[in-house]
Design a protein that fits this description.
Pathway: tRNA modification; tRNA-queuosine biosynthesis
Family: Belongs to the QueA family.
Keywords: Cytoplasm, Glycosyltransferase, Queuosine biosynthesis, S-adenosyl-L-methionine, Transferase
Strand content: 25-35%
Order of helices and strands: EEEEEEEEEEHHHEHEEHEHEEHHE
Number of strands: 17
Subcellular location: Cytoplasm
Protein name: S-adenosylmethionine:tRNA ribosyltransferase-isomerase
């Protein structure tokens, strides 16, 4: 499909720079393409209990954001040191990370980068790495001198929360972001971007959902920095997705299959949990235990196998995520929904408001 079909104009003031307080007071646009003339309705996130039923199952991504934005100095024999930044996006081994580097063109294989500007970040030593591989679009593979938990400790000491570029361009990261840019149920460290639909949940909202008999299940997909990369191709067939690591355990798969068998609905919180569940589902809709790297690219025409509803934030124009929600609820429906959201003051992107989408029959 043509990528420009997924374009729209977003006023700058619609980009949220902080989350709603409290989190579940954020607005919620309910989009039901199967509901005749009442496709769109305006609510708050805390109204979710009005749209879910006993026996439904919500699927959350429990990945935890790490301070994956690193600043350092590149060293090369016969050349002066140069300031560089690297955003880690996928772990390749206990001592290796794939990263997006700036300025990428000036970095070569064999360069040594000292992060933290020489500060002794832990008792185990400084955080140094060698550029082992170089790919396209500024992607590199870093082999660190540290490994495993020691490397994790050093990254936590010198790294910064990698705010999305549309927020970072407007204000610097601060201490508040360490809490704001994390779900309350984050557990498995490894993401460099938050599963932002989950940022709306609070203990009181969980209690309300428990009270009406909605199940809560967790999967893990470590969101990579590739989620922020624009689609530069003119046609979707020419776009290359970046892979992300995730897993669905056997017990969770069995519970979700039981939900479907008794007539309950699977409600994914965020496009990350949806992409993982759809990666784990067979053509008959049965969800199996699954682990590995997924690069699933969902565009209109995709046949959803397992997911019935999707809770998600408002996404960037021409993005793979806007393509995904258009596949889920219909392109014309989502274009109308985004026009309504812009005209009525919804807040967009990571810290913005949310939507609840019903899958188009």
């Amino acid at each position: 499909m043509r990528v420009d079909l997924f374009d729209f104009d977003l006023p700058d003031e619609r980009i949220a720079l902080r989350p709603a307080e409290p989190r579940d007071s954020a607005r919620l646009l309910v989009v039901d393409p199967n509901n005749g003339a009442n496709v769109l309705s305006d609510h708050q996130v805390r109204d979710l209990t009005s749209f879910l039923r006993p026996g439904d199952a919500m699927v959350f991504n429990d990945t935890k954001v790490i301070p994956a934005q690193l600043e350092g100095v590149r060293h090369r024999e016969g050349a002066p040191g140069q300031q560089v930044s690297a955003t880690l996006h996928m772990r390749a081994a206990p001592d290796r990370w794939k990263a997006f580097a700036k300025p990428g063109k000036r970095i070569k294989i064999g360069d040594r980068i000292q992060f933290g500007h020489g500060e002794n970040v832990s008792i185990l030593g400084a955080l140094d790495a060698v550029v082992e591989e170089k790919g396209e679009g500024g992607e590199i593979t870093l082999r660190f001198d540290l490994s495993g938990p020691a490397l994790d400790e050093a990254i936590a000491a010198v790294g910064h929360i990698p705010l999305p570029p549309y927020i970072a361009a407007k204000r610097p990261e601060d201490e508040r972001d360490r809490a704001d840019y994390q779900t309350i149920y984050a557990r498995e460290e490894g993401a460099v971007a938050a599963p932002t639909a989950g940022l709306h949940f609070t203990p009181s909202l969980f209690a309300a959902l428990d009270a009406i008999g909605v199940e809560r299940h967790f999967v893990t997909l470590h969101v990579g920095a590739g989620t922020f990369l624009p689609v530069k191709a003119d046609d979707t067939k020419d776009h290359k997705m970046h892979f992300e690591i995730g897993y669905v355990d056997a017990a969770t798969a069995a519970k979700l299959n039981a939900v479907k068998a008794r007539g309950g609905r699977i409600v994914c919180v965020g496009t990350t949990s949806l992409r993982l569940i759809e990666s784990a589902a067979g053509d008959d809709g049965t969800i199996k235990a699954w682990s590995g790297a997924t690069g699933i690219f969902i565009t209109p025409g995709y046949r959803f196998k397992a997911v019935d509803l999707l809770m998600t934030n408002f996404h960037l124009p021409r993005s793979t995520l806007f393509m995904l929600v258009s596949a889920f609820a219909g392109l014309d429906t989502m274009r109308a929904a985004y026009t309504h959201a812009i005209e009525t003051g919804y807040r967009f992107y990571s810290y913005g408001d949310g939507s609840l989408l019903y899958r188009k029959d």
